[in-house]
Here is the input.
Amino acid sequence: MANGYGAITDAPTSRRYSEPLPGGRVAAYADDGESRGRGWLAFAGIMIMIAATLNVIYGVAAISSSHFYAVNAHFILSDLNSWGWVVMLFGVAQFGVALGILVRAGWARWAGVLVAGGNAIIQLVFLPAAPFLALTVFAVDLLVIYGLVAYSGPRSQAEAARVR
Here is the structure.
């Protein structure tokens, strides 16, 4: 649909397409900043949700004294049972934050940074019990933090004007 300024707007995708240029060429569309970083936010929400699910499962495994974890692992603070409760409760909080990120709640972005950072620290504590798993989840937490901080929301009007 024409907006009166020589551009055609595709309302469902919020993209602006330029009118055809002389010679039949068409200029590339300009994004209004609304969709900037949607993939990273979806990635962060989904990964926090997966981490939450795994943390609840790992917490239950640690609480129930199953043979999932390494034998005779020594922790800096407390024991495996106590850390199991911490991880399980933290997983429940992570799940709520992940849902907030996926529905784009304003508070959820920074809460996501906090829970991803907290999960990274918890994974370093769990390093003696499951080293490769802890390092893998730690690396994913760093990517989640990057996605939430670098691509957090729409551009400001001044930044969007500079891009055009």
User: Anything to note?
Assistant: The radius of gyration is 22 Å. Residues 7-35+154-163 form one domain. The helical segments are 38-63, 80-102, 108-125, 131-150, 157-163. The mean pLDDT is 76.
